[in-house]
Amino acid sequence: MDLPSVTILGLGLMGGSLALALRGRCAALSGYDHDLEVVDQALARGIVTRGSTDLGEALAGARLVVVATPVRAILALLPRVAEALPDPFHLLDLGSTKAEIVARMAELPQHVSPVGGHPLCGKETSGLAGAEATLFREKVFVLTPLARTRPETLALAHTLVDAIGARALVLDAARHDRLAARISHVPYLTAIALVAAAEAADDELAWTLAASGFRDSTRLAASGVTMMTDILTTNRTAALEGLADVQAALSELRALLADGDEAALRAYLEARRQARRGL
Amino acid sequence: MDLPSVTILGLGLMGGSLALALRGRCAALSGYDHDLEVVDQALARGIVTRGSTDLGEALAGARLVVVATPVRAILALLPRVAEALPDPFHLLDLGSTKAEIVARMAELPQHVSPVGGHPLCGKETSGLAGAEATLFREKVFVLTPLARTRPETLALAHTLVDAIGARALVLDAARHDRLAARISHVPYLTAIALVAAAEAADDELAWTLAASGFRDSTRLAASGVTMMTDILTTNRTAALEGLADVQAALSELRALLADGDEAALRAYLEARRQARRGL
Predict the structure, then answer these.
(1) In angstroms, what separates the C-alpha of A95 from chain B's closest C-alpha?
(2) Fewer CB within 10 Å of terminal CB in chain A, N or C?
(3) Does the pLDDT at position B124 exceed 70?
Protein backbone atom coordinates (compact mmCIF):
# COMPACT_ATOMS: atom_id res chain seq x y z
CA MET A 1 0.00 0.00 0.00
CA ASP A 2 1.77 3.12 -1.24
CA LEU A 3 -0.91 5.61 -0.24
CA PRO A 4 -2.81 6.33 2.98
CA SER A 5 -6.57 6.80 3.27
CA VAL A 6 -7.76 9.00 0.42
CA THR A 7 -10.93 11.06 0.08
CA ILE A 8 -11.83 12.38 -3.36
CA LEU A 9 -14.14 15.38 -3.52
CA GLY A 10 -16.11 15.49 -6.75
CA LEU A 11 -16.84 12.22 -8.54
CA GLY A 12 -16.96 13.44 -12.12
CA LEU A 13 -14.73 12.38 -14.99
CA MET A 14 -11.51 13.33 -13.17
CA GLY A 15 -12.41 12.30 -9.63
CA GLY A 16 -14.06 9.08 -10.78
CA SER A 17 -11.11 8.20 -13.02
CA LEU A 18 -8.69 8.90 -10.17
CA ALA A 19 -10.70 6.64 -7.86
CA LEU A 20 -10.62 3.87 -10.47
CA ALA A 21 -6.89 4.34 -11.04
CA LEU A 22 -6.22 4.19 -7.27
CA ARG A 23 -8.30 1.09 -6.57
CA GLY A 24 -6.32 -1.29 -4.38
CA ARG A 25 -3.46 1.18 -4.07
CA CYS A 26 -4.55 3.13 -1.00
CA ALA A 27 -5.51 2.16 2.54
CA ALA A 28 -9.10 3.33 2.00
CA LEU A 29 -10.93 5.25 -0.70
CA SER A 30 -13.82 7.52 0.15
CA GLY A 31 -15.76 9.81 -2.15
CA TYR A 32 -17.85 12.97 -1.84
CA ASP A 33 -20.20 14.50 -4.35
CA HIS A 34 -22.99 17.03 -3.89
CA ASP A 35 -25.16 14.84 -6.13
CA LEU A 36 -26.56 11.80 -4.27
CA GLU A 37 -27.19 9.94 -7.53
CA VAL A 38 -23.50 10.22 -8.40
CA VAL A 39 -22.47 8.96 -4.95
CA ASP A 40 -24.85 6.01 -5.26
CA GLN A 41 -23.53 5.22 -8.72
CA ALA A 42 -19.92 5.33 -7.50
CA LEU A 43 -20.77 2.97 -4.64
CA ALA A 44 -22.75 0.63 -6.90
CA ARG A 45 -19.86 0.40 -9.38
CA GLY A 46 -17.38 -0.15 -6.53
CA ILE A 47 -15.46 2.98 -7.56
CA VAL A 48 -15.24 4.08 -3.91
CA THR A 49 -15.61 1.96 -0.77
CA ARG A 50 -17.29 4.75 1.15
CA GLY A 51 -19.30 7.68 -0.22
CA SER A 52 -21.41 10.55 1.03
CA THR A 53 -23.02 13.86 0.13
CA ASP A 54 -21.93 15.02 3.59
CA LEU A 55 -18.46 16.55 3.49
CA GLY A 56 -17.54 15.71 7.10
CA GLU A 57 -18.66 12.12 6.72
CA ALA A 58 -16.72 11.66 3.49
CA LEU A 59 -13.59 13.22 5.01
CA ALA A 60 -13.54 11.15 8.22
CA GLY A 61 -10.19 9.42 8.58
CA ALA A 62 -8.68 10.90 5.41
CA ARG A 63 -4.92 11.51 5.31
CA LEU A 64 -4.91 12.68 1.70
CA VAL A 65 -7.75 14.79 0.29
CA VAL A 66 -8.00 15.28 -3.47
CA VAL A 67 -10.36 17.99 -4.72
CA ALA A 68 -11.57 17.16 -8.23
CA THR A 69 -14.37 19.65 -8.93
CA PRO A 70 -14.44 22.60 -11.35
CA VAL A 71 -12.08 25.40 -10.31
CA ARG A 72 -14.45 27.72 -8.47
CA ALA A 73 -16.01 24.84 -6.58
CA ILE A 74 -12.45 23.99 -5.49
CA LEU A 75 -11.96 27.57 -4.28
CA ALA A 76 -15.16 27.33 -2.25
CA LEU A 77 -14.40 23.85 -0.88
CA LEU A 78 -10.83 24.45 0.33
CA PRO A 79 -11.66 26.37 3.56
CA ARG A 80 -14.62 24.06 4.25
CA VAL A 81 -12.37 20.99 4.00
CA ALA A 82 -9.83 22.52 6.37
CA GLU A 83 -12.61 23.20 8.86
CA ALA A 84 -14.25 19.79 8.54
CA LEU A 85 -11.00 17.85 9.02
CA PRO A 86 -9.16 19.11 12.12
CA ASP A 87 -6.40 16.47 11.96
CA PRO A 88 -3.25 17.11 9.88
CA PHE A 89 -3.73 16.05 6.27
CA HIS A 90 -2.30 16.36 2.79
CA LEU A 91 -4.34 18.28 0.25
CA LEU A 92 -4.13 18.03 -3.55
CA ASP A 93 -6.45 19.49 -6.15
CA LEU A 94 -6.92 18.69 -9.84
CA GLY A 95 -8.07 22.13 -11.00
CA SER A 96 -7.37 23.33 -14.53
CA THR A 97 -6.03 26.72 -13.41
CA LYS A 98 -3.58 27.04 -10.56
CA ALA A 99 -2.75 30.60 -9.47
CA GLU A 100 -6.03 31.38 -7.68
CA ILE A 101 -6.19 27.92 -6.12
CA VAL A 102 -2.62 28.11 -4.83
CA ALA A 103 -3.36 31.59 -3.42
CA ARG A 104 -6.39 30.19 -1.58
CA MET A 105 -4.33 27.22 -0.37
CA ALA A 106 -1.77 29.64 1.09
CA GLU A 107 -4.46 30.99 3.45
CA LEU A 108 -5.46 27.60 4.88
CA PRO A 109 -4.78 26.78 8.55
CA GLN A 110 -1.45 25.18 9.42
CA HIS A 111 -2.70 21.62 9.95
CA VAL A 112 -3.21 21.42 6.18
CA SER A 113 -0.27 20.72 3.84
CA PRO A 114 -1.49 21.68 0.36
CA VAL A 115 -0.09 21.19 -3.11
CA GLY A 116 -1.66 22.17 -6.43
CA GLY A 117 -2.09 19.67 -9.24
CA HIS A 118 -3.37 19.50 -12.83
CA PRO A 119 -3.41 16.30 -14.86
CA LEU A 120 -3.45 17.22 -18.57
CA CYS A 121 -5.79 14.63 -19.95
CA GLY A 122 -8.30 16.77 -21.77
CA LYS A 123 -11.56 15.18 -22.68
CA GLU A 124 -14.56 17.25 -23.67
CA THR A 125 -16.87 14.80 -21.94
CA SER A 126 -17.62 15.06 -18.24
CA GLY A 127 -19.33 13.04 -15.56
CA LEU A 128 -18.72 9.76 -13.75
CA ALA A 129 -20.11 7.71 -16.64
CA GLY A 130 -17.03 8.54 -18.73
CA ALA A 131 -14.54 7.79 -15.95
CA GLU A 132 -11.80 5.27 -16.75
CA ALA A 133 -8.80 3.97 -14.83
CA THR A 134 -6.47 4.65 -17.77
CA LEU A 135 -7.37 8.34 -18.17
CA PHE A 136 -4.07 9.60 -16.71
CA ARG A 137 -1.73 7.07 -18.25
CA GLU A 138 1.31 8.65 -19.96
CA LYS A 139 -0.23 12.11 -19.41
CA VAL A 140 1.65 15.06 -17.91
CA PHE A 141 0.51 15.76 -14.34
CA VAL A 142 1.59 19.25 -13.29
CA LEU A 143 2.33 19.77 -9.59
CA THR A 144 2.50 23.32 -8.23
CA PRO A 145 3.92 23.21 -4.69
CA LEU A 146 3.68 26.21 -2.34
CA ALA A 147 6.43 27.47 -0.06
CA ARG A 148 4.49 25.87 2.80
CA THR A 149 4.03 22.49 1.11
CA ARG A 150 5.66 19.85 3.37
CA PRO A 151 8.25 17.63 1.67
CA GLU A 152 6.25 14.50 2.53
CA THR A 153 3.19 16.00 0.82
CA LEU A 154 5.12 16.61 -2.39
CA ALA A 155 6.58 13.10 -2.14
CA LEU A 156 3.08 11.68 -1.65
CA ALA A 157 1.83 13.61 -4.68
CA HIS A 158 4.66 12.09 -6.74
CA THR A 159 3.70 8.63 -5.46
CA LEU A 160 0.09 9.23 -6.50
CA VAL A 161 1.14 10.47 -9.95
CA ASP A 162 3.34 7.38 -10.41
CA ALA A 163 0.58 5.08 -9.18
CA ILE A 164 -1.86 6.27 -11.83
CA GLY A 165 0.74 6.04 -14.61
CA ALA A 166 1.11 9.79 -15.24
CA ARG A 167 4.31 11.85 -15.55
CA ALA A 168 4.89 14.48 -12.85
CA LEU A 169 6.08 17.96 -13.84
CA VAL A 170 6.72 20.47 -11.06
CA LEU A 171 5.87 23.96 -12.22
CA ASP A 172 5.24 27.46 -10.91
CA ALA A 173 1.47 28.15 -10.80
CA ALA A 174 1.69 31.39 -12.80
CA ARG A 175 3.78 29.74 -15.51
CA HIS A 176 1.31 26.86 -15.64
CA ASP A 177 -1.59 29.24 -16.13
CA ARG A 178 0.21 31.23 -18.84
CA LEU A 179 0.97 28.04 -20.77
CA ALA A 180 -2.44 26.46 -20.15
CA ALA A 181 -4.07 29.56 -21.63
CA ARG A 182 -2.23 29.01 -24.91
CA ILE A 183 -2.47 25.25 -25.23
CA SER A 184 -5.98 24.81 -23.86
CA HIS A 185 -8.08 27.85 -22.94
CA VAL A 186 -7.51 29.88 -26.10
CA PRO A 187 -7.94 26.79 -28.34
CA TYR A 188 -11.32 26.41 -26.61
CA LEU A 189 -12.18 29.99 -27.57
CA THR A 190 -11.14 29.50 -31.20
CA ALA A 191 -13.24 26.31 -31.31
CA ILE A 192 -16.22 28.33 -30.09
CA ALA A 193 -15.49 31.04 -32.67
CA LEU A 194 -15.28 28.46 -35.49
CA VAL A 195 -18.70 27.11 -34.54
CA ALA A 196 -20.03 30.69 -34.48
CA ALA A 197 -18.59 31.32 -37.97
CA ALA A 198 -20.14 28.10 -39.29
CA GLU A 199 -23.49 29.21 -37.83
CA ALA A 200 -23.03 32.64 -39.43
CA ALA A 201 -22.91 30.96 -42.84
CA ASP A 202 -26.65 30.43 -42.29
CA ASP A 203 -26.64 27.30 -44.45
CA GLU A 204 -27.74 24.02 -42.91
CA LEU A 205 -25.42 22.14 -45.28
CA ALA A 206 -22.45 23.39 -43.23
CA TRP A 207 -23.11 20.64 -40.72
CA THR A 208 -23.50 18.01 -43.45
CA LEU A 209 -20.18 18.96 -45.02
CA ALA A 210 -18.28 19.22 -41.72
CA ALA A 211 -15.62 16.51 -41.97
CA SER A 212 -12.88 15.37 -39.61
CA GLY A 213 -10.98 18.66 -39.91
CA PHE A 214 -13.87 20.68 -38.54
CA ARG A 215 -14.73 18.04 -35.94
CA ASP A 216 -11.20 18.02 -34.55
CA SER A 217 -10.82 21.80 -34.74
CA THR A 218 -14.03 22.32 -32.76
CA ARG A 219 -13.94 19.33 -30.39
CA LEU A 220 -13.17 21.59 -27.41
CA ALA A 221 -16.33 23.64 -28.09
CA ALA A 222 -18.32 20.69 -26.68
CA SER A 223 -16.65 21.14 -23.26
CA GLY A 224 -18.86 21.76 -20.25
CA VAL A 225 -19.67 25.45 -19.89
CA THR A 226 -19.39 25.53 -16.08
CA MET A 227 -15.93 24.00 -16.21
CA MET A 228 -14.82 26.38 -18.97
CA THR A 229 -16.33 29.51 -17.41
CA ASP A 230 -14.51 28.65 -14.18
CA ILE A 231 -11.28 28.25 -16.09
CA LEU A 232 -11.64 31.44 -18.11
CA THR A 233 -12.64 33.65 -15.18
CA THR A 234 -9.84 32.33 -12.94
CA ASN A 235 -7.26 32.72 -15.72
CA ARG A 236 -8.63 35.86 -17.32
CA THR A 237 -5.36 37.77 -17.77
CA ALA A 238 -3.43 34.91 -19.38
CA ALA A 239 -6.44 33.93 -21.51
CA LEU A 240 -6.83 37.50 -22.77
CA GLU A 241 -3.09 37.70 -23.52
CA GLY A 242 -3.15 34.42 -25.44
CA LEU A 243 -6.31 35.52 -27.24
CA ALA A 244 -4.62 38.76 -28.26
CA ASP A 245 -1.73 36.78 -29.78
CA VAL A 246 -4.17 34.59 -31.73
CA GLN A 247 -6.02 37.68 -32.95
CA ALA A 248 -2.72 39.24 -34.02
CA ALA A 249 -1.78 36.07 -35.92
CA LEU A 250 -5.18 35.99 -37.66
CA SER A 251 -4.82 39.67 -38.63
CA GLU A 252 -1.40 38.92 -40.07
CA LEU A 253 -2.81 35.97 -42.03
CA ARG A 254 -5.68 38.13 -43.27
CA ALA A 255 -3.23 40.77 -44.50
CA LEU A 256 -0.97 38.19 -46.18
CA LEU A 257 -3.95 36.62 -47.93
CA ALA A 258 -5.61 39.92 -48.91
CA ASP A 259 -2.34 41.43 -50.19
CA GLY A 260 -1.63 38.41 -52.36
CA ASP A 261 1.98 38.29 -51.12
CA GLU A 262 2.17 34.59 -51.69
CA ALA A 263 5.83 34.04 -50.86
CA ALA A 264 5.33 35.67 -47.46
CA LEU A 265 2.11 33.69 -46.88
CA ARG A 266 3.86 30.41 -47.71
CA ALA A 267 6.79 31.24 -45.43
CA TYR A 268 4.45 32.07 -42.56
CA LEU A 269 2.41 28.86 -43.00
CA GLU A 270 5.51 26.69 -43.42
CA ALA A 271 7.13 27.99 -40.21
CA ARG A 272 3.97 27.19 -38.19
CA ARG A 273 3.71 23.79 -39.92
CA GLN A 274 7.25 22.93 -38.85
CA ALA A 275 6.53 24.02 -35.27
CA ARG A 276 3.36 21.90 -35.21
CA ARG A 277 5.14 18.87 -36.60
CA GLY A 278 7.62 19.12 -33.74
CA LEU A 279 4.81 18.00 -31.42
CA MET B 1 -17.30 -3.52 -64.88
CA ASP B 2 -19.17 -0.35 -63.88
CA LEU B 3 -16.56 2.10 -65.12
CA PRO B 4 -14.69 2.56 -68.42
CA SER B 5 -10.93 3.09 -68.76
CA VAL B 6 -9.81 5.60 -66.13
CA THR B 7 -6.70 7.77 -66.01
CA ILE B 8 -5.84 9.44 -62.71
CA LEU B 9 -3.61 12.51 -62.87
CA GLY B 10 -1.64 13.00 -59.67
CA LEU B 11 -0.83 9.95 -57.57
CA GLY B 12 -0.74 11.53 -54.12
CA LEU B 13 -2.96 10.71 -51.15
CA MET B 14 -6.19 11.38 -53.05
CA GLY B 15 -5.26 10.03 -56.47
CA GLY B 16 -3.52 6.99 -55.00
CA SER B 17 -6.45 6.25 -52.70
CA LEU B 18 -8.89 6.59 -55.60
CA ALA B 19 -6.82 4.16 -57.67
CA LEU B 20 -6.81 1.66 -54.78
CA ALA B 21 -10.56 2.08 -54.27
CA LEU B 22 -11.22 1.54 -58.00
CA ARG B 23 -9.04 -1.54 -58.38
CA GLY B 24 -10.95 -4.19 -60.31
CA ARG B 25 -13.89 -1.84 -60.88
CA CYS B 26 -12.84 -0.18 -64.13
CA ALA B 27 -11.88 -1.48 -67.56
CA ALA B 28 -8.30 -0.16 -67.14
CA LEU B 29 -6.54 2.08 -64.64
CA SER B 30 -3.70 4.33 -65.74
CA GLY B 31 -1.82 6.90 -63.67
CA TYR B 32 0.17 10.05 -64.31
CA ASP B 33 2.47 11.91 -61.96
CA HIS B 34 5.19 14.46 -62.68
CA ASP B 35 7.43 12.57 -60.26
CA LEU B 36 8.91 9.39 -61.80
CA GLU B 37 9.60 7.91 -58.38
CA VAL B 38 5.89 8.15 -57.52
CA VAL B 39 4.89 6.52 -60.82
CA ASP B 40 7.36 3.68 -60.23
CA GLN B 41 6.06 3.22 -56.69
CA ALA B 42 2.45 3.10 -57.92
CA LEU B 43 3.37 0.49 -60.52
CA ALA B 44 5.41 -1.57 -58.05
CA ARG B 45 2.52 -1.62 -55.55
CA GLY B 46 0.06 -2.52 -58.32
CA ILE B 47 -1.93 0.64 -57.61
CA VAL B 48 -2.18 1.36 -61.35
CA THR B 49 -1.78 -1.04 -64.24
CA ARG B 50 -0.14 1.59 -66.47
CA GLY B 51 1.77 4.69 -65.39
CA SER B 52 3.80 7.49 -66.93
CA THR B 53 5.29 10.92 -66.35
CA ASP B 54 4.18 11.69 -69.91
CA LEU B 55 0.68 13.12 -69.96
CA GLY B 56 -0.20 11.89 -73.48
CA GLU B 57 1.03 8.39 -72.74
CA ALA B 58 -0.93 8.20 -69.48
CA LEU B 59 -4.10 9.50 -71.14
CA ALA B 60 -4.08 7.13 -74.12
CA GLY B 61 -7.38 5.27 -74.31
CA ALA B 62 -8.94 7.03 -71.31
CA ARG B 63 -12.72 7.51 -71.28
CA LEU B 64 -12.77 9.05 -67.78
CA VAL B 65 -9.99 11.35 -66.59
CA VAL B 66 -9.76 12.23 -62.90
CA VAL B 67 -7.47 15.12 -61.94
CA ALA B 68 -6.25 14.68 -58.36
CA THR B 69 -3.53 17.30 -57.92
CA PRO B 70 -3.54 20.50 -55.82
CA VAL B 71 -5.98 23.10 -57.12
CA ARG B 72 -3.68 25.30 -59.16
CA ALA B 73 -2.04 22.28 -60.76
CA ILE B 74 -5.57 21.22 -61.78
CA LEU B 75 -6.16 24.65 -63.32
CA ALA B 76 -2.94 24.30 -65.32
CA LEU B 77 -3.61 20.69 -66.35
CA LEU B 78 -7.20 21.07 -67.61
CA PRO B 79 -6.41 22.67 -71.01
CA ARG B 80 -3.39 20.40 -71.46
CA VAL B 81 -5.54 17.32 -70.90
CA ALA B 82 -8.13 18.53 -73.41
CA GLU B 83 -5.36 19.03 -75.96
CA ALA B 84 -3.63 15.71 -75.29
CA LEU B 85 -6.83 13.64 -75.57
CA PRO B 86 -8.70 14.53 -78.80
CA ASP B 87 -11.40 11.85 -78.38
CA PRO B 88 -14.56 12.59 -76.36
CA PHE B 89 -14.03 11.92 -72.66
CA HIS B 90 -15.50 12.53 -69.23
CA LEU B 91 -13.50 14.75 -66.88
CA LEU B 92 -13.72 14.86 -63.10
CA ASP B 93 -11.44 16.65 -60.65
CA LEU B 94 -10.95 16.22 -56.90
CA GLY B 95 -9.89 19.80 -56.09
CA SER B 96 -10.65 21.33 -52.68
CA THR B 97 -12.09 24.54 -54.15
CA LYS B 98 -14.53 24.50 -57.02
CA ALA B 99 -15.46 27.92 -58.43
CA GLU B 100 -12.20 28.60 -60.31
CA ILE B 101 -11.95 25.02 -61.52
CA VAL B 102 -15.53 24.98 -62.81
CA ALA B 103 -14.88 28.31 -64.56
CA ARG B 104 -11.81 26.84 -66.25
CA MET B 105 -13.79 23.69 -67.17
CA ALA B 106 -16.40 25.88 -68.86
CA GLU B 107 -13.76 27.07 -71.34
CA LEU B 108 -12.65 23.59 -72.45
CA PRO B 109 -13.31 22.39 -76.01
CA GLN B 110 -16.59 20.62 -76.70
CA HIS B 111 -15.23 17.06 -76.89
CA VAL B 112 -14.72 17.25 -73.12
CA SER B 113 -17.63 16.71 -70.71
CA PRO B 114 -16.45 18.03 -67.34
CA VAL B 115 -17.85 17.85 -63.83
CA GLY B 116 -16.30 19.19 -60.62
CA GLY B 117 -15.80 16.99 -57.57
CA HIS B 118 -14.53 17.22 -54.01
CA PRO B 119 -14.40 14.25 -51.65
CA LEU B 120 -14.38 15.54 -48.07
CA CYS B 121 -11.96 13.18 -46.43
CA GLY B 122 -9.53 15.57 -44.86
CA LYS B 123 -6.21 14.19 -43.78
CA GLU B 124 -3.28 16.42 -43.00
CA THR B 125 -0.88 13.89 -44.49
CA SER B 126 -0.14 13.79 -48.19
CA GLY B 127 1.62 11.55 -50.66
CA LEU B 128 1.13 8.09 -52.13
CA ALA B 129 2.57 6.38 -49.05
CA GLY B 130 -0.54 7.33 -47.04
CA ALA B 131 -3.01 6.24 -49.74
CA GLU B 132 -5.66 3.73 -48.70
CA ALA B 133 -8.64 2.14 -50.46
CA THR B 134 -10.99 3.04 -47.59
CA LEU B 135 -10.21 6.79 -47.56
CA PHE B 136 -13.53 7.80 -49.14
CA ARG B 137 -15.80 5.38 -47.34
CA GLU B 138 -18.89 7.02 -45.81
CA LYS B 139 -17.45 10.44 -46.71
CA VAL B 140 -19.42 13.17 -48.48
CA PHE B 141 -18.31 13.54 -52.11
CA VAL B 142 -19.48 16.88 -53.50
CA LEU B 143 -20.24 17.01 -57.24
CA THR B 144 -20.50 20.41 -58.95
CA PRO B 145 -21.92 19.91 -62.46
CA LEU B 146 -21.74 22.65 -65.09
CA ALA B 147 -24.53 23.60 -67.48
CA ARG B 148 -22.53 21.77 -70.16
CA THR B 149 -21.99 18.60 -68.16
CA ARG B 150 -23.55 15.72 -70.12
CA PRO B 151 -26.07 13.60 -68.21
CA GLU B 152 -23.98 10.46 -68.76
CA THR B 153 -20.96 12.20 -67.21
CA LEU B 154 -22.90 13.08 -64.08
CA ALA B 155 -24.26 9.51 -63.97
CA LEU B 156 -20.74 8.16 -64.34
CA ALA B 157 -19.53 10.41 -61.51
CA HIS B 158 -22.32 9.03 -59.31
CA THR B 159 -21.27 5.48 -60.24
CA LEU B 160 -17.68 6.29 -59.26
CA VAL B 161 -18.76 7.84 -55.95
CA ASP B 162 -20.87 4.76 -55.17
CA ALA B 163 -18.04 2.43 -56.18
CA ILE B 164 -15.64 3.93 -53.65
CA GLY B 165 -18.23 3.92 -50.86
CA ALA B 166 -18.73 7.69 -50.62
CA ARG B 167 -21.99 9.68 -50.51
CA ALA B 168 -22.64 12.02 -53.46
CA LEU B 169 -23.93 15.54 -52.81
CA VAL B 170 -24.65 17.74 -55.84
CA LEU B 171 -23.90 21.36 -55.03
CA ASP B 172 -23.36 24.71 -56.68
CA ALA B 173 -19.64 25.49 -56.88
CA ALA B 174 -19.92 28.91 -55.20
CA ARG B 175 -21.98 27.48 -52.34
CA HIS B 176 -19.43 24.69 -51.92
CA ASP B 177 -16.60 27.20 -51.68
CA ARG B 178 -18.44 29.39 -49.18
CA LEU B 179 -19.12 26.40 -46.93
CA ALA B 180 -15.67 24.87 -47.39
CA ALA B 181 -14.13 28.15 -46.24
CA ARG B 182 -15.95 27.89 -42.93
CA ILE B 183 -15.59 24.18 -42.23
CA SER B 184 -12.08 23.71 -43.55
CA HIS B 185 -10.06 26.69 -44.78
CA VAL B 186 -10.71 29.03 -41.83
CA PRO B 187 -10.18 26.20 -39.29
CA TYR B 188 -6.79 25.74 -40.98
CA LEU B 189 -6.03 29.43 -40.40
CA THR B 190 -7.07 29.29 -36.73
CA ALA B 191 -4.87 26.19 -36.30
CA ILE B 192 -1.95 28.15 -37.74
CA ALA B 193 -2.77 31.09 -35.43
CA LEU B 194 -2.90 28.81 -32.36
CA VAL B 195 0.56 27.48 -33.17
CA ALA B 196 1.78 31.07 -33.61
CA ALA B 197 0.31 32.02 -30.20
CA ALA B 198 1.96 28.99 -28.56
CA GLU B 199 5.27 30.05 -30.12
CA ALA B 200 4.71 33.61 -28.88
CA ALA B 201 4.63 32.27 -25.30
CA ASP B 202 8.38 31.81 -25.82
CA ASP B 203 8.46 28.92 -23.35
CA GLU B 204 9.67 25.53 -24.53
CA LEU B 205 7.40 23.83 -21.99
CA ALA B 206 4.41 24.79 -24.15
CA TRP B 207 5.14 21.79 -26.38
CA THR B 208 5.60 19.48 -23.40
CA LEU B 209 2.25 20.48 -21.93
CA ALA B 210 0.36 20.35 -25.23
CA ALA B 211 -2.21 17.60 -24.70
CA SER B 212 -4.92 16.15 -26.93
CA GLY B 213 -6.92 19.40 -26.96
CA PHE B 214 -4.07 21.35 -28.54
CA ARG B 215 -3.15 18.49 -30.85
CA ASP B 216 -6.68 18.21 -32.23
CA SER B 217 -7.16 21.98 -32.43
CA THR B 218 -3.97 22.38 -34.47
CA ARG B 219 -3.98 19.18 -36.51
CA LEU B 220 -4.80 21.08 -39.71
CA ALA B 221 -1.70 23.28 -39.24
CA ALA B 222 0.37 20.27 -40.34
CA SER B 223 -1.30 20.32 -43.79
CA GLY B 224 0.88 20.69 -46.86
CA VAL B 225 1.59 24.35 -47.59
CA THR B 226 1.32 24.04 -51.38
CA MET B 227 -2.11 22.43 -51.09
CA MET B 228 -3.30 25.03 -48.59
CA THR B 229 -1.87 28.03 -50.46
CA ASP B 230 -3.65 26.81 -53.59
CA ILE B 231 -6.88 26.49 -51.63
CA LEU B 232 -6.62 29.88 -49.95
CA THR B 233 -5.67 31.80 -53.08
CA THR B 234 -8.43 30.20 -55.19
CA ASN B 235 -11.04 30.79 -52.45
CA ARG B 236 -9.76 34.11 -51.19
CA THR B 237 -13.07 35.96 -50.92
CA ALA B 238 -14.92 33.24 -49.02
CA ALA B 239 -11.89 32.55 -46.82
CA LEU B 240 -11.60 36.25 -45.93
CA GLU B 241 -15.35 36.42 -45.18
CA GLY B 242 -15.19 33.35 -42.93
CA LEU B 243 -12.08 34.71 -41.27
CA ALA B 244 -13.86 38.00 -40.59
CA ASP B 245 -16.68 36.09 -38.87
CA VAL B 246 -14.19 34.18 -36.70
CA GLN B 247 -12.44 37.42 -35.82
CA ALA B 248 -15.78 39.00 -34.91
CA ALA B 249 -16.63 36.02 -32.68
CA LEU B 250 -13.23 36.22 -30.96
CA SER B 251 -13.70 39.95 -30.37
CA GLU B 252 -17.10 39.26 -28.84
CA LEU B 253 -15.60 36.56 -26.61
CA ARG B 254 -12.80 38.92 -25.58
CA ALA B 255 -15.33 41.60 -24.62
CA LEU B 256 -17.50 39.14 -22.69
CA LEU B 257 -14.48 37.85 -20.79
CA ALA B 258 -12.93 41.26 -20.16
CA ASP B 259 -16.24 42.79 -19.04
CA GLY B 260 -16.86 40.01 -16.58
CA ASP B 261 -20.47 39.66 -17.79
CA GLU B 262 -20.56 36.03 -16.84
CA ALA B 263 -24.20 35.30 -17.62
CA ALA B 264 -23.73 36.59 -21.16
CA LEU B 265 -20.47 34.66 -21.54
CA ARG B 266 -22.12 31.43 -20.39
CA ALA B 267 -25.07 31.93 -22.73
CA TYR B 268 -22.74 32.52 -25.68
CA LEU B 269 -20.62 29.45 -24.91
CA GLU B 270 -23.65 27.24 -24.28
CA ALA B 271 -25.29 28.17 -27.59
CA ARG B 272 -22.12 27.24 -29.50
CA ARG B 273 -21.76 24.04 -27.45
CA GLN B 274 -25.27 22.96 -28.43
CA ALA B 275 -24.56 23.73 -32.10
CA ARG B 276 -21.34 21.70 -31.94
CA ARG B 277 -23.02 18.77 -30.24
CA GLY B 278 -25.49 18.65 -33.12
CA LEU B 279 -22.64 17.37 -35.29
Answers:
(1) 15
(2) N
(3) no
